[in-house]
Amino acid sequence: MEAIRNALDFKDLPRSEVYLSWAVALFLIIFPLLPFSSFAMATMIQFLIFAVYGMGWNTIGGYGGQVDLGKAQYVGIGAYTTTVALIRWDIPFWVSMPLGMAISVLWSFMIGYPLFKLKGHYFAIATIATSLVLKDLFEVWGFVGAARGLHISPVKYPPPDFLRLIFKEDVYYYYLLLGFFFLAVFVMNWFRHSALGYRLRCIKDNEEVAKALGINVHWAKIKTYALATAYVSAMGSVHAMYIKNIEPEDTMSLDISVLIALMAMLGGAGSLWGPIIGAAVLVPMKSYLKEWMGAKMGLIGIDLIIYGFIIMVIAAVEPKGLWGLYERWKGKRSAP
Amino acid sequence: MKRLFLALGFLALFLALFLMEKGAYAQDEITIGVIYPLTGGAASAGRELQMGAELAMEIANGKMPELAMDMAKEAGIKSMGGKKIKLIFKDHEGNPTLGADLAKKLILDDKVVGILGCYHSSVTKAVSAVCEQYGVPMINDSSTSPVLTRQGYKWFWRTTPHDGTFTMDLFEFLKGLSEGKAKGVKPVPKEELMNLAAACEKTEWGSAASQLLEDYAKKYGYNLKRNLLYTAKSADLSSEVRSLLAVNPDAMLFASYTSDAILMVKTLKAQKAKPKLIWGQNAGFDTPEFRSTLGEDIVGILTRTVFSPKLGEVKTISTQINELYKKKAGYDLSDASSRGFTGVQTWFHVLEKAGSTKPEDIQRAANSIEIPGEQLVVPWKGIKFATSGEEPGQNIMGSGIIGQYQKNKEGQVVLEIVYPFELSTANLIYPFPGY
């Protein structure tokens, strides 16, 4: 009961933030009713997916301060579990998604135990390595389609199919993802108020002090890592059903790991809204820059240059990300 | 309060950006969405495809009676009152997910009549699934994984022969070589070419190509001693090459995209590889960049292809189109550009026959067209799609050629035809001269 109360308790946030988040939530709900283009829809779906990925990352990376650059492996496990389960045994999405989460969490315990003996850069590098090793294994594993990956044929699985989560129109995926998104925010809010959340922030501030206070640092990190994993794996499953074509290079690449961490960091690691803001800025920016400047103006590749430049500027001006900028601005404004 | 307005202002701006995106095109044009790799490792092939497609569009929309092609006779599509074809190009970067997204955008926002593309078999697979879902016709001009036409799709047609045909060509060539059919070479005992080693890139196309090499080697009684897959994006292929050379192969076979094909040959040179034959499954081995970067290092290398400027010696239309292309691009038509060209030409014939832009009419037209071989720049007997059997949508009149890079009198490296043997334009260089 208390967990639910915590999840729904936003009282500690300033009123303006609560109003604003209501406005955003309302916008997200009515968005499909607007005369949107399919490109905008695809961008919004990408935003929701990456916002949830980012929120997952934020638990261990933001609140816990453990820079994890290997989240793509869990995207992969989630995506592959649902797809393999569907193609090989015709297991519906609603069964295979929790199964994928369970496998991911199990895997996260297995590698989390040794990984969290490492600190700082060593931890970050080790997460990259585990993710890449898993990707390489998937690339030669014939059962899961090796490097060619797996493909969900529209002839074999005709839409609409709610059980298998196969739809033609993006709007279904949008609302489903929106549901996941809201759920993720609530879980995040619970985490913020939970004992685990407090322990983790303490660890981030000073690990030695946390130990002295009797916190089992290693175990707290592993538990949080598992939570982060569950988020990412669930989204990986939805992502696979949405794109219907998965291959290791696409679903488990280092780019995805970096992008997940980057969005959360850009938005503001260790804050409730940070990953959402990061995804809201980076995802549309990426697709629109590419579309307008790349395709329409013929400046192919310029999107990447601008993208990198903005990230550099923000990292130099405010390491706490966009949320840090906002808080600084608010601080100045509210002081008389 | 002020802050809330500011936030709402931002929200409105965000929204405005989204709604601006809907494309609008003139009614008197028929839009075809074309998805190619315009950036990334295969960008040079993508640009070739694009220029080939553009040239075909210019010919279809203009009037060039000197060309013996239906497409050149009238300006635009006659059966639709002279409507012009408009191509909207998109860049998929070799990424299937991006390709599928772009296909949706083209279908829903740009309201294209059909799709053309996508070079990478992996991307074509994802895009063809989107087209199948939306019931939008897709013509594939340049992807050769046999799987693509075996998916049972009703909205997918492929003009190019697939790797099954091309791989068979290779083994027929090897067989012919031992039978003494190759021009200018004495019969080569089969034992001399027994040991093969192959390296293919590992996405859909390369994996399928690798499997075919294995199957055909067995069928023709050759010994494929090493058959490995590698990442096309690799920055270093030395361990792959070492692994191939370790089995002391008589012939080395590759399926590579552009940047990795160049790196592969550079590594072969660095490691002083000296097989008797080097053969590339087209793609990277047949791009202008491959030629210009490696220069004389590729003399003696074989590649399967569907076009060589030398075809002009047996086909006038090839020379005519090649001249037009040269004016536009500054160099000869290549395998990629000729297939892009043929893709748009096929679209023209399909639309002309359909007489409308309704998907059902286009489907019916595509299933019944027959483009005679003499109108094509490529050496095929024609274009006619299978409507039943194992491979519906596959052009059943396609064929491949094998070319060999040789130095001509002026000292330039050109692609001479060496297979089919009766089309040979030069003596085969055998064995590979080595480095």
The counted number of beta strands of chain B is 14
Separation, N- and C-terminal Cα atoms of chain A:
41 Å
What is the percentage of strand-forming residues of chain A?
A: under 5%
| Broad shape of chain A | globular
Q: What is the count of distinct domains of chain A?
A: 1
Name given to the CATH architecture of the largest domain in chain B: 3-Layer(aba) Sandwich
Order of strands in the sheet with the most strands of chain B?
7-6-8-9-10-13-14
Number of helices of chain B: 13
Shape of chain B: globular
* Widest beta sheet: strand line-up of chain A: 1-2
How large is the share of residues in beta strands of chain B?
15-25%
Q: Overall pLDDT of chain B, averaged? A: 89
Major sheet details of chain B: 7 strands, mixed
Largest sheet of chain A: 2 strands, antiparallel
Helix content of chain A: over 70%
**Number of separate helices of chain A:** 15
- Residue-averaged pLDDT of chain A: 88
Write up what this structure looks like.
- The complex is a heterodimer of chains A (336) and B (435).
- With 336 residues, chain A is mainly alpha-helical.
- In chain A, strands 1-2 form a two-stranded antiparallel ribbon.
- In chain A, helix 4 packs across helix 10 and helix 12 runs parallel beside helix 15.
- Chain B is an alpha/beta fold and 435 residues long.
- Chain B has 2 domains: 203 residues, 3-Layer(aba) Sandwich (Rossmann fold), CATH 3.40.50.2300; 166 residues, Rossmann fold.
- Chain B has 13 helices and 14 strands.
- In chain B, the strands form 3 sheets. Chain B has a 7-stranded mixed beta sheet, with helices on both faces.
- In chain B, helix 4 runs parallel beside helix 5, helix 6 packs parallel to helix 7 and helix 9 runs parallel beside helix 10.
- Chain B is globular.
- Classes of the chains: A mainly alpha (336), B alpha/beta (435).
